[in-house]
Fold these 2 entries.
Entry 1:
Amino acid sequence: MAYQFDFVDVFKYTDVLARGVGLTVTLIGVGGTIGIAVGIAGAWARGYSGNRALEWLVAGYVEAIRNTPFLVQLFFIFYGLPSLGVRLTEVQAALLAMVVNLGAYATEIIRAGIEAVPRGQREAGASLAMTRMQVFRHVVLRPALQKIWPALSSQLVIVMFGSAVCSQIAAEELTYAANFIQSRNFRAFEVYFVATGLYLVLALLLRQGMRSLGGWLVFGRRA
Amino acid sequence: MIEFTGWDIVRNLLLAARWTAALSLVAFALGGLVGLAVLFARVGHAKPLRWGAVAFIEVFQGTPLLMQLFLVFFGLPLVGIDTSAWFAACLALTLWTAAFLAEIWRGCVESVPKGQWEASASLAMNYLQQMRHVVLPQALRLAVPPTVGFSVQVVKGTALASIIGFVELSKASTMITNASFQPFTVYGAAAAVYFLLCFPLSAWSRRLERTLHVAHRN
């Protein structure tokens, strides 16, 4: 018996898919922005704070996150934290997990960018009587971000793909929508095929968005 | 109700971790083989093969691993292949690993100077001979640290197999949590086990990078 594909049954649920895409975009938009901010702060703490304890703390955070799966981090935050009295909604937990996860990777990526900025730049800044913070903010940060912008964009795409896992705590993003639809029409393959296509498109848009944003924000080309 | 002691939790997690390790090893080994084939297609001269390899890499790098797992898990039965969660997870993770390794290795192959290709061609070597005797041995040195580094991603990727119902470390954590009502302890312990699996690999990759004097990729 040959299987008959039926995609019409999927497109009856366009509104569900659209809502799912909406939350996925929101998650990566908000989580990505805060995550990169955390990454910048983390990179500063590791290279510029001059505080040993803080450096070790950030190093521990980065290693802990980079060596455990996102799924377990998410479950820990959503199911585990309530026993400490921290009760989060699905979306809040998903966002927090994404921020914590991206923050660790972004810290490492941005730190690599900072290390690639020539020493002379910092010394020049210091010789102009700038404080360490001023050197970081006005001299080092922008060229560092320029160097690692493509890597940061890739990491953002990876985090967006990871957000598919948030369906497991019932955050109603794209994968959750796909799970919901296939539970209704039993067209699992067709639904996930369409969802996969949507992720492909989202990834392309995210890359393009990061390119434009980078051009405007980091490279200072106002187009 | 069954009482779960701390030792019960750890013991069950460690038993489940064997499946995480098994799945990681299978996916990494098979993914390496498939990845090598994709690499040969990707850097070879035959246009259709090259385009096929590019498409393969783009699709598997450009979509979430979870979707790939779902498509394999729900798609194989449609073409008449009886599948289990183990088989589907192995297949999906293998293909995903292959795509990433092929792309990592392509970077290493392309950093071998062009003159090496030309010199070996002038010795009347064919493509396979060039790869085997001249290019790959030189690329290998560059390839080892990022390959070891990627193995960490494979171990972490196996966590997603829990979602299609394969009982490994993550799935076991959920099951133990449902029985013991100690999510904080159980997921914390599961994270610790993953860390113990992954951190040595990360550290090893970093050390290889330093000793082989290769600039950090990504």
Note: The mean pLDDT of chain B is 93.
Entry 2:
Amino acid sequence: MQIRVPTRQDEKMINLFLDKNLSHQEYKAINNVENEYFAKNGALLLLEDDKTLIGLIGAFEQSPNVLTINHLIINENFPNLNYDQDLFQVILNHAKRLHFDLLEINIPYISDNLNNFFKSNHFNYANTHKLQLKI
Amino acid sequence: MLNYTPGNKNLNQSKTAIIVLAMHRSGSSLLTRMINLMGIPLGRSLIEPNKDNPKGFFEHKDIIRYHEDLLNNFGMTWSYPLNLPANWTKSSEAQFCKNLILEVLQKEFNNETIFAIKDPRMCKLLPMWQDILPEFNTTAKYITIIRHPLEVAQSLYVREKLNYEISYLLWLKSVLEPLPYIKDSSCAYITFAEIIQNYQMAIAKIGSNLDLHHLSSFSHNNYAVKLEIDESLYHNKSSNIVKLSGSSLENQVINIYDFVQNNINDYDTLIANLTNAYNWLNNMTQFVNPVLLYLYNEINTRDETILSHQEELLKSYRQIDKRDKALNDLYNSASWKLTEPIRKLNKKLIKKFQDHFNE
């Protein structure tokens, strides 16, 4: 298992993965990883097992102090392996490194598992309808 | 008097096994090598020397392995100072071990009339050997070598940080526990100090006590033997004896050692007093053993917990490394580097916008 930074060549594979794993909900396909994430002080990270994509996390700068996570997906065939924590921790460290004050969740559909995951990482709904974590 | 000629083929004749009994780090390797150099075989498959015993251990590899496996089956190692379970010699584990050892004896010593075996674990496992040797048509002669308990404890502490008190208890048990099995057999006691002072005389004494003529006639002109033994003695020089813990057990083992040293040539007195000490140890063990057993189990449980925590910690370190690597990969990636001008531009634009807004 390894975490990898994607290039534009990976976009097709990423969108297939999103399509497969988010088939029950609406989502916005990724058209340009560089513009949508890296140019916005954010990151998109892929989790691969033997060159097979099994998870990803995406975050970008919403405003000068806020980094927004808009994707955190682990394929359901790989549960309870803390892969979500691995990915999240890299983004959290990145947010700290770039001196963001707040991490915010902007994922259209948050499952119970995902909600529990963010709660266990001390996110809460502090006077807002979005899960937030003060860094 | 046993007339030994190396290489005798006496398949059906009764054999003699010289069993060297000793606590670990007591000079038994040196003594066994001396016996070996006098022409008594130890078998071909011996444990290789290492930094603890650069000259070699002179212990049979397979026998040691079977002894260790047997102790492990009872949840013990050589440094476990508690008794084996009651009736352990009748257990299937012991029976299995006996058969394996008999195979080794057949393979290694079938053509010999005399051979020697050394393993400090035999002090504990001697009852099993009492069953093995008759089956191999062999009579045992025992040599017990005793070294000052403080030197032994110091040596074991240096080698593996073994607690002094555990070393003393192991020393005590190694000296006393074989007694019931050897006192009515042909048996010689020798101290490590005697070997250091005059090894020729020590060997001759063993030869005389055990009625082994070829040990009595140690060749003073055998320069190869002298050279090897002299070199070993140089490495085993006795150190200055300083009390280590000041505990009552320490005093007790020193008293026993002093008594042994003073009466080493008076066999009857030595055996009578060691038997008294054995009875005292046996009584004490009956009371103390259950408590020690409980504490050992407790320690083992905690060791297992610590081990599992260490494994978890290691796993966490690996995860942290993995995450740090991912972050480094991010900042070194082409995507991140390529988009750096855009990030800078955005930053400038935002600042300009804010400045304009503030005006």
Note: The longest strand of chain A covers residues 52-63.
